[in-house]
Design brief:
This protein is α+β, with helices and mostly antiparallel strands and about 120 residues long. The chain has two helices and seven strands. The N and C termini lie close together (about 5 Å).
């Protein structure tokens, strides 16, 4: 078991339900990322630090603290975006290797952020 350090990512993760828009490609409907999701992914990439390119290939646990600007946001809607960002930054090879998520929701109006760590099993 390898327990990695906690990492902070400043900014509130967008919810999965508001992160994609329907577009038409060659006459067929498709999903595209919204500008807000693209901006969050880029910000996550810059801030992820030593987790970037870690390329965890085995099973892992994600321990997560999400600090929202208001309590109106759902914790579960942010989970998929965060897992996708971990894959985007090559922290993990595939987010389907996540076998456990321990997530807590907090309120911080002035400093929305996430704090996470990964434990490789």
């Amino acid at each position: 078991m390898i327990e990695h350090d906690w990492q902070t990512i400043i900014g509130q993760p967008p919810s999965k339900s508001n992160s994609y828009k329907i577009i038409t490609l060659s006459g067929h409907g498709s999903l595209a990322k919204t500008p807000g999701l693209k901006a969050y992914e880029q910000s996550f990439y810059v801030q992820v630090g030593k987790y970037r390119d870690l390329m965890i290939t085995g099973f892992f646990e994600l321990h997560l603290r999400v600090y929202f600007a208001s309590m109106s946001h759902d914790l579960d809607n942010s989970l998929k975006i965060i897992l996708d960002c971990l894959q985007y930054t090559k922290t993990v090879k595939n987010d389907n290797r996540c076998v456990k998520i321990v997530a807590d929701k907090f309120l911080d109006k002035n400093n929305p952020r996430i704090e996470f760590r990964i434990i490789e099993i």
